[in-house]
Batch of 3 targets.
Target 1
Amino acid sequence: MPNEKQSETVRISKKAFIGGIIVFILVVAGLWSGLSYYPKQQKQHNIQVYKKALFESINCQFHCPLQLVTINGTTQNLPEPQCSQQCIKTLHDKNLSSSTFTTAEILDDGLPAKLDKAMQDCQKIHTLKIQSNATSPLQPTVNVTGFFLCVQTNLDVLKGQYAYLH
């Protein structure tokens, strides 16, 4: 056998080369897409966790038992202070912060606006005009018990509209 140097060349068909490039491009595109998608999903999840915690705190406060309290000579039903404080403490204990979210991100699904509307609607329904004597002007007074029951109902309806509140 002669001592010829044999060249070691690998021949790849044009079709296989183009196929390899296409596979490489698809893999790179898939990785890029996946790596950019995950942070967006994680941020969306964190926003929903934040909004759920706020919703739960508000819902908790509106489910606190009412008690008669006299302030400046006027007796009215108000939520038990210890219950309201516990609802707020539970929220604070979660150490959530909205500073990493923009206002637009928090408002994007309409929950904050719907919460506000739910409370305003109940306030309108349960505000009475009362006159203390014949010569005094009518004074707006909120039927607190009716207001709280109305808000509780509206919060239950809202909870059913947002999957992340369950």
Note: The helical segments are 14-62, 81-93, 103-107, 111-125, 144-161.
Target 2
Amino acid sequence: MPVNRTTMHVVLICISLSLSSWARLGDAREFDGVSLEPSLESLVFEGSELHPSLRSHRIELLRDLPDGLEFPANPHVSADEAFVHATARGGSQGRLDGAGMVEALYARYTDGESEIGFYGLQAGTAVEADQREAALREIWAHNAALDRTYVYRRGPLLLVVWLWTDGPLPESWVAVRSKVAQIMGSPWDVRKPVLRQPPASDEYVINPDGESPEWSLKDDRQVLSEDPFEAF
């Protein structure tokens, strides 16, 4: 039997309410136990805060810095245009500049044998953050597969955490990632489902060859739930 426009309106309202509830639950999970408004400053740590074996690298001993990267302290957060540009270049293996980024973080830690570093960026808009995230995940995909680099995203913040070592993975590597995840969440690329717009009530009919349903409106405007159920 065909289901007319009134039935479809009832169904679409139910779907809308269900999706709204699902979205609210998703938001609650996303922000559960994590700062609602993280900032690059919240990612500034001394080495010992990340793991007992780590220390913040002395600036004068740092090598292989990205071109043009200058800073007075390690770690360092700044909105200086040159600093943002140099950090963006370093955090993308030289492929991207600081366009669309408004602030940057650079940090280097060592245990005497291994090196762990942060490239942090704050995007100016959600669109720029989305584009930068996609690009960074592609750039660092190989290193991520080797468990040497992870890309984190939380709102406008993007963070590349990398490891260099000649030997096995140090214990500090797990500790650093755990500490970062408390603020930034999972480093995995979680893609939100893209929902299609449901068709209008006059765009399709269920069982078009059936008879039209019959029911009586309560108070001349409400359809009892039993009637659509019987119609379906």
Note: The helical segments are 5-31, 47-50, 81-90, 126-139, 141-145, 171-184, 226-231.
Target 3
Amino acid sequence: MNAKYNPQLNLTGNREKPQWYKHFPGNPLEQMPLLLKHGYHTLPVAKIMGRHLSAPTEVKDNWRNRLQFLYTIDGVAYNEKGEALIILNAQPLRALNPESKLVELVSKHDGFELTTPDGVSKKVAYRGALKLSPEQWYQLKEEETTLPLTRAEVDQIQGKGYLLKNGIWQPENAAVGKYWEHLGRDLDLQEYAQSVAEITKSSAPVMVSYLDKNRYAQPVLRSLVMGRLFRNSPTVIGYYPLNCSQGSLVGVRGRRAYQSEYLDAFAPTVFHELPPVDNRKQVDKAIPYNTKFFEARNK
């Protein structure tokens, strides 16, 4: 990892507890064990969205414009049918380490065509997805915090986001709406979309996502990666390799690690405090997750 192009950033405000947030730049397979060893929890998409809006002034630019290729603890799994699972707090991602078994050949095909927001077409065929067994796929699918997506819904989300319609920021289609409702947890998505539009000075769609449209010979798992808030930049990407040398993780201390300032619906016991992890064999221990919010929402 070249520190010149991926420097460690300060993400903690002057009035916040020292080192409350810590940036771990570099290959996620190498950085995840370090993050856990130092007593941090990896951030989910919703927490990063919350920091985009509410980070202290002195570190706000780092959160909005300088963090890129930010790998989150929220994952996206794909199967051979092209279906996807959007998994909040994907426990297999906590177990990443340099010995993790990744897919060597990206798929049975040669990649998929992707058109970026600025109109550039390119072929995407990234390797570096975590191998899953069929049993692991079905286990993840049954989790309370998983949103299953059909192949058609994956297509509908691709390159889409929130658009300004009649003065209100709205999802471009129903699939985009339920995808962001799930990822955003209890955030005000209209407020976030409006803020992103103001930050990026963009009238184009905001909160754009790109998922992996390759067809795999077996189930695989990737992290949902957040980009910086820049004009025409995608907000979430679901096809980057887990062994990307230009990637990074952000950790936060404390049991409220998976809460943003807006997630009052979550109880304060979302996570138990964890002692530092001394070896890789310990990192796959699950942390109890509070599902009360999701149960209430699904009634």
Note: The radius of gyration is 18 Å.
